[in-house]
Amino acid sequence: MKKPHSTSHADVIRLWTGSTVSQIGSAIGGVALTMIAIQRFPAGVSLLAMMALFSSVSGLLMAFPAGAFVETRRTRPIMITTDVVRAATMAGVTLLATCGVLNVYALCLVATINGGAHVLFSTASQVHLRNMVDEESYPEINGKMMSTLWLSLILGPAVAGLLLIILDPIWLCIFDGLSFLAAALSVALLRSKETLTPTSAHWNPSPSLRERMTGGISLLRTDRQLRSFFAAWGAFAGLSAAFSPICKAFLIQDLAFPASQYGLMMGISSVGGLAGAWMTRYFENRRGLERTMHISAWARSSIYLLFPFLTGGTFSVIIATALYGALLFTTSLTNSTTSALRMRATPVSHQARISALWIFAGTATGPLALLVIMPLTHIYGARVTLAVVATGIAATPLLLPRSPTDGRGVSQG
């Protein structure tokens, strides 16, 4: 059933604008917290690792309860509340630092709260976005939302660098807090009516807490298509999370890429991710959504396999920049199309739980993959380990579903 186009379109623009401001602010806040940890605490690097750990653990613990919590509630109040809470935590960092009482425990608490709030917000926003637009708009909307991530990666660090010339890092946290408030305001200004009760053959009007917590897993066991999407996403998320630090070490340590050139390379290549997100609808119209997903996934795999063959020198920096740009382009395109197809394949009644399950997989598989793969770098070196991980990533498209969705987008398992 199609949503009213004019109202939905205006609301999507509001939501997208708020999301863009929020993610750019978060990128600035990420730089600020990094500088605060390094400049104000002797064990700054260890503190950053601790903050990342607390944020990840908080996200993991929140994932399943988030799906159950969001499912039976209106999503807008949840989204607004989580944005306000995150704004308050960032303002708290500035306040504590100004008073001279900012400590390790406070920063770890901020990381914990924001990690859980991010999962809750992401779960609610996925459900809300699905209720806001019609099915045919999923690819375009997912592409636009994906573009905010790449835009934040391009603009966030650059803006933070300029602001750090004239401001202490503690004041950059205020920019992050204001961006969260702007996102909350964009949600509050949405005009389309929010529906609450899903209508689906899978819908149980009074599920138990256990059913709400594990409903996503139960659906995966019976739905072959969603199970394939989940397997492909989990494998790629874990292996790509392992690939990133190994490739960074390979380029900077083994190939002696200057840190300044590496930073510039990552900034330039992020444009590829932005382009991929924006061109999702174009490729869908030309090739179809499922075919675009498979072509971009296989193209992405082939690019990963080229990184272990890089050598040192200025020319290799140019080649690596082109490879990263192409990699982010195909990754963005694959993720946008996969997200759209997953939304179509998920019953409305299970959207919150499936979204939470995807967040859980994306958060949990990275540390597990690193735990298994990182020891290989000490035995075989970064280049060989990189080739092993790239080979694993190259095989992940085999896990994607091959059969088209039916009329409802839900396989019958």
Overview of the structural elements:
The chain contains 14 helices and no strands. With 413 residues, the chain is an all-alpha fold. The protein has helices at residues 5-40, 44-71, 75-98, 104-132, 138-166, 169-188, 209-222, 224-254, 259-278, 280-287, 289-304, 314-345, 351-380, 382-394.
Topology readout:
Blueprint: H1 5-40, H2 44-71, H3 75-98, H4 104-132, H5 138-166, H6 169-188, H7 209-222, H8 224-254, H9 259-278, H10 280-287, H11 289-304, H12 314-345, H13 351-380, H14 382-394
Number of helices: 14
Strand content: under 5%
User: What is the first-to-last residue Cα distance?
Assistant: 24 Å
- Please report the total strand number as a whole number: 0
User: How much helicity do the residues have?
Assistant: over 70%
**Computed Rg:** 21 Å
Q: What kind of sheet is the major sheet?
A: none
Helix vs. strand class: mainly alpha
What is the H-and-E element order? HHHHHHHHHHHHHH
Task: Determine the mean pLDDT.
Answer: 81
Low-confidence stretches: 1-6, 199-206, 404-413
Per the principal axes of the C-alpha atoms, what is the gross shape? globular
In short:
With 413 residues, the protein is mainly α. It is built from 14 helices and no strands.
